[in-house]
Amino acid sequence: MIKLTLNPEMEARSHTFDKQEVILGSGDSTLADFAIPGDTVQSMHVKIIKEESRFVVINVANDPFTSLKGLPFGKKTINNHDTLEIGNHTILFEISTTPEDSSTPTDPDGDQFTKEELASIDIDALVKEVEDFEHQLPTPPDEAQAPSELPKQSPSEETSSDAPPEKNQPQPPFEAEPLSIPSKETPKPKMYYLQDFDDETETWNQDTEGFQIQDPKKTAIENWKMIIGLIVAIIILSGIICSGVYFRASGKNSQEEKKIAAGITDIAMAITHAQLNHITPNKLNWSDPDFIRNNLAQVLAPNLHTQAQIDTKGQFHKYPYILRVYTSDDLSRFLIIAQPAPNLLQWLIHKKTIVIDSTAMEMRKITDLKELNRLLTNPTPLEGNSGLEISRTIKEGKLMPLDSLAGNKNHWGFISPKTLGYIRPGAENYIYNAPRFYPFGETLLNRAINLHMNPSSSEDVSELQEDMSEISKFPDIVLYTSLGLQNAIDAQKALTTFTPNSKFLVGYVKLNPKGYVASSHLLMHEDNAEISMLESDALFPHHLSGKPLRTNSFETDDFEQLFSFENTDHDSDISVERNHPLYLQLHAVATERLHALKPISNEIITLLQKQHNEILPDFETNIQDLVHEYIQTGHEQRTKMIEELANLYLEYSDMPLEEFMQFISATKLTPLIDEALEEHNRTPETMTLDENQIEEQFQKIHSAQTLANLNDNTQETAKMLSLGKLSDTENLINYQILLHNKVLDKLSQFLLSPNTPYAHNNFNNQDRTTLIQVLKNSWVTDHDEYKYFLSEFDHRRKEG
Questions:
Q1: Which of 198, 311, 417, 532 is a Cys-bridge partner for 539, taking CB atoms 3.0 to 4.6 Å apart?
Q2: Where are the beta strands (DSSP E) in 386-498?
Q3: How many CB atoms are located within 10 Å of the residue 71 CB?
Q4: Digit-coded pLDDT (tens) for 594-622
Q5: What CATH architecture is 2-117?
Q6: What whole-number distance in Å separates Cα of residue 694 and Cα of residue 742?
Q7: What is the DSSP secondary structure assignment for residue 718, as one 8-state letter?
């Protein structure tokens, strides 16, 4: 017997039930035994079922807001004094062993009878109905199978049993025939839609169609097996997912690392260009985006994209990296650090820091920055012992090769020529040797070619040599040109001429139609054997040519003095400007002859030494062959030198012959100049000059009234005073000196004399151009003299 109380703490309403099943539902439901008001309450909301010695409550409506003791449920055991919450209502559940009022019976539905209803009940009729109901019950199976066990009655007894008893005959006490009641109540069919509400310890037995309580230990073991299997499956699935995420993130990190490495190589070259050209950023902010962009444009191939895209705070635009730049006080050294920004991905998958030290110009990956950060806290971290410690710490990092940054088919230009790694191991990883930075050296190569091909001044040569001296601080540097093989050959000739003591490698890059780097090549000795003069002792690599190495191992001073090839220019009494382009070109011509003859002379010296120490059987034949080779090579070199001298004379035709001869004497080429000038004079000319013609030209110069007239006469006279028309070198020099003096006298008259025809006229820009041409035609090569007349002209122009 159970008792349900609705809202016990408010206006309580109680009902007592003596049933196996009690339905709680809405007030208008015909199925509900216990009505609960509310719109959300269903007609069959909750059931309370008695199962043997316990009561079970089932959430039929599957309402998540219906709870037992404050917790949602599907099917749970309900105990005495437990509370159910349905909507806004609370139902108190109580178990009663006896009725609350024993004198007041209850109807089957649990409602109490009133006194009037009790008075109107016919007791005899009720007893009669019970007796009739017992007779209608079927005979129990056990009694039907054993009829012999029942006592037999005689016919008289059967007949008398039907007849009413006599009035005065005593009746035996009434004994009800025993009823055969099943030991268990017939279970009601289980509704299968309620199987989801079963407790963990209960299953539905389809055979008996009732509830069976399984062994709790067996059920616990099965549950633990299921939980462990589920955990293992989750772990395996999580491992697969995490592995996929890790590898994907690692691949993404690798790509980001390459992009950042490419970016800081561009930044390193931009800062290098700024240092060489003495350019400093605003407020010494070396990570300023505009500063990096402007300098990078000078060294990066025009059509290549850069990853050096940062904001004003040093943060890369597309990637979670931070740029840090350190420089020494004298700006001679810098350190670039690309450090991953702190984030969750960096904590899960550790990214490496990329560092570039300007002393090595290599990329290194560092895992732990603690030691490097500690060293960078010094006031001058890149100098002294601290700078050495920083270099050591960076070199302990993993080298990042340049070819690891190559894009599709090396279009990004990070792969250096293949031969570079063989002849200069390690140079292929120097950042400045990446072909994408070919403008870095191409500017110098073009300047050298221009000086070599055209007349120039010693000031231009000095500037070039100073710049080349700065570039030579980069070990094993390759200077590229994008104009092809022939331009590379010309550049190497020019470098040999103007910087004979420097060691440079020259290469050339090939670009595809889109302007990307298609390939790069190093200019080797076999490309042009005549230009291999950058290293005085390794001009002709005999291991490449297949010829035996000719060494000078002779120990006798007499033979060494006999074939001495030392340059004796410093002993010359002639004073010339050693940095003048003509002198350097003449020196290169003479040096080329010496280096062509020296290997043969070394073999002759060696053979003479052996013959001196012992008698050689084939000495005469061998010495004759070597001497013949020496003479033949000397003749070839002589022919080439004469041709070179003739070309140089034409190139420097605006130089007075006297000055040209001084350079010839200073380079010990005087014996060849006559033949060179004869080679030049072989060209037929239209006329041959005599003294009267020359005097007539000088008279025209003296009679000139304007600068334009003077320029025309001077130009005509200068063309006449050449070796083609006047073969006597001494007379030619005298006439050129005379022309020079007469023109200067006339210019002094124009610019300095008060009786000048320009006294009342104003000069203009055209007159200044004409004056420059007059000075050039009259061989005014002295820099001070040249500037003097231009300054006087400018002064007269201001006065006018």
A1: 532
A2: 398-399, 478-481
A3: 8
A4: 888 888 989 999 888 888 888 888 888 88
A5: Sandwich (2.60)
A6: 13
A7: H
